[in-house]
C-alpha cells in the first residue's frame, strides 16, 4: 500500500460505529457496492482491541462513525464530561494515531457544529466558514470537545475529517433525522443552516477515502436552508394541512441545556471534488421529498402516528 490510502488493489474498509446511525448506513452502502469491509469490535479507547481489529481485517481504509453524541441529545454531554473526553478526544486520537502508525487512511465523520454566525460571518450574508477558519462555537461541551480534537487531528497526514451538519435521510419518522426532529418539536427556531443529505453525500465519502483525501472537509450540500423552508417543502410535497410554530433563540434556550450552533459552511472544497453535488434545496427535493411524495399516504399516516396528533 502507498501512503494515505492509495492502493493498487481493491480497498478494504474497517468501520467503527456498527450499532450507530451513520455507521449502519455506511455498512449497508458498502454492501450494496460489493466493497470489501468489516465492522470493528474494539472500543475507541482500547488500543489493543483496535490492533486486533487491524490484524483481523487488514484494512487499507478505516471509516470512523463511532463517537458519543448523547441521548436523547447532546445535552447529555454537559453532565458526562469525562465520558465525552474519553471517547471523543482520547478515543478519537487513539484511532487516528494507530491508523497513522499502520499507514492506514482514516476518514472520520465529525461535526460542523463548531461554528456560529457572528459579526464576521453574519447570518444571511452568504459568507461561509471555510476549512481554514478557527472554530468559534464552544457553547456545548460536545462541540467544545469536537473542535478541540479537530484541531489535533488536522496534524495527522493520513486523516480526513468530515464536518457533518444536521444529517438528513429520506425516512421521515427516523428519530435522528433532522427533518423528523423539526416535524416533531412543538416549536422550532427559524435559522438558515448548512446540512448534510446523507443519501447523496455518503457515497462521496467513500470516494474521498479511495482518493486518499486528507485534512478537513466541510461535508455539507452547498448553500443553506432554514427550518421554515424545510417545513414549507414538507407542506408542499406531503401534508398541505401541516402547521408549525416558531420561537426565537432566547425562548429555545429555556428548553435546552446547552446552546446549539447555527452556521453556513463554505463548500468550495467538496464542490471541487464533486462538481455534481446538489445545492441543499435541490438535494432535499431529489433525495427526500420526491421519493416520499410517491408514497404520500403511508408517509403521512406514519408521521401523524409519530406526532400523536
Ligand atoms: N447524528 C447527528 O446529528 C450528527 C451530526 C453531526 C455529526 N455527527 C457525527 O457523526 C458521528 C456518527 O454519528 P451517529 O449519529 O451515527 O452516532 P450514533 O448513532 O450515536 O452512534 C454512535 C456509535 O458510536 C459507538 N461508540 C460510542 N462510544 C464508543 C466507543 N467508546 N468506542 C467505540 N464505539 C463507540 C456506538 O456504539 P455503542 O452503541 O456500542 O456504544 C455507536 O455505534 C459522530 O461522531 C457524530 O459526532 C452526527
Structure description:
The protein has a six-stranded parallel β-sheet, sandwiched between helices. The protein contains twelve helices and eight strands. Strand 1, helix 1 and strand 2 form a beta-alpha-beta unit. With 309 residues, the protein is of the alpha/beta class. The longest helix has 21 residues. The chain has a domain of 216 residues: Rossmann fold, CATH 3.40.50. The chain is globular.
List the helices and strands and how they pair.
Layout: E1 12-16, H1 21-33, E2 36-39, H2 47-57, E3 61-64, H3 75-78, H4 81-101, E4 105-111, H5 141-153, E5 159-164, H6 178-184, E6 187-188, H7 198-211, E7 215-218, H8 227-237, E8 245-246, H9 249-253, H10 268-273, H11 280-293, H12 296-307
Parallel strand pairs: 1-2, 1-3, 3-4, 4-5, 5-7, 6-8
Helix pairs in contact: 4-5, 8-11
Spell out which ligands are present.
NADP nicotinamide-adenine-dinucleotide phosphate
Write down the CATH topology of the domain at 3-169 and 194-225 and 263-279.
Rossmann fold
Walk across the major sheet and give the strand order. Answer: 2-1-3-4-5-7
**Secondary structure: helix percent:** 40-55%
User: What order do the SSEs take from the amino end to the carboxyl end, as H and E?
Assistant: EHEHEHHEHEHEHEHEHHHH
Distance between the termini: 56 Å
- Sheet with most strands: 6 strands, parallel
What class, by secondary structure content?
alpha/beta
Radius of gyration: 19 Å
Domain RmlD-like substrate binding: 14-184
GO molecular function: methionine adenosyltransferase regulator activity
Pfam family, one: RmlD_sub_bind
Protein name: RmlD-like substrate binding domain-containing protein
Amino acid at each position: 500500500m502507498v501512503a494515505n490510502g492509495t492502493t493498487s488493489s481493491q480497498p478494504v474498509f474497517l468501520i467503527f460505529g456498527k450499532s450507530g446511525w451513520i455507521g449502519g448506513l455506511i455498512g449497508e452502502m458498502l454492501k450494496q457496492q460489493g466493497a470489501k469491509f468489516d465492522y470493528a469490535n474494539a472500543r475507541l479507547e482500547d488500543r489493543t482491541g483496535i490492533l486486533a481489529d487491524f490484524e483481523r481485517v487488514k484494512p487499507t481504509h478505516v471509516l470512523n462513525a463511532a463517537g458519543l453524541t448523547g441521548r436523547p441529545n447532546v445535552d447529555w454531554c454537559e453532565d458526562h464530561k469525562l465520558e465525552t473526553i474519553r471517547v471523543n478526544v482520547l478515543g478519537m486520537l487513539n484511532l487516528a494515531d494507530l491508523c497513522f502508525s499502520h499507514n492506514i487512511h482514516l476518514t472520520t465523520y465529525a461535526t460542523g457544529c463548531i461554528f456560529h454566525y457572528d459579526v464576521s460571518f453574519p447570518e444571511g450574508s452568504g459568507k461561509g466558514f471555510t476549512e481554514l477558519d478557527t472554530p468559534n462555537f464552544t457553547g456545548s461541551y460536545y462541540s467544545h470537545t469536537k473542535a478541540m480534537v479537530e484541531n489535533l487531528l488536522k496534524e495527522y497526514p493520513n486523516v480526513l475529517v468530515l464536518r457533518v451538519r444536521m444529517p438528513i435521510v429520506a425516512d421521515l419518522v427516523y428519530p435522528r433525522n433532522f427533518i423528523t426532529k423539526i416535524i416533531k418539536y412543538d416549536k422550532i427556531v427559524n435559522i438558515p443552516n448548512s446540512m448534510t443529505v446523507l443519501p447523496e453525500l455518503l457515497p462521496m465519502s467513500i470516494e474521498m477515502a479511495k482518493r486518499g483525501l486528507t485534512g478537513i472537509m466541510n461535508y455539507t450540500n452547498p448553500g443553506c436552508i432554514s427550518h421554515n423552508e424545510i417545513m414549507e417543502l414538507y407542506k408542499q410535497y406531503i401534508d398541505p394541512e401541516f402547521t408549525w410554530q416558531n420561537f426565537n433563540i432566547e425562548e429555545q434556550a429555556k428548553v435546552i441545556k446547552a446552546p446549539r450552533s447555527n452556521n453556513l459552511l463554505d463548500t468550495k472544497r467538496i464542490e471541487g471534488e464533486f462538481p455534481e453535488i446538489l445545492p441543499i434545496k435541490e438535494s432535499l427535493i431529489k433525495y427526500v421529498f420526491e421519493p416520499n411524495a410517491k408514497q404520500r399516504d403511508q408517509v403521512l399516516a406514519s408521521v401523524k402516528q409519530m406526532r400523536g396528533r
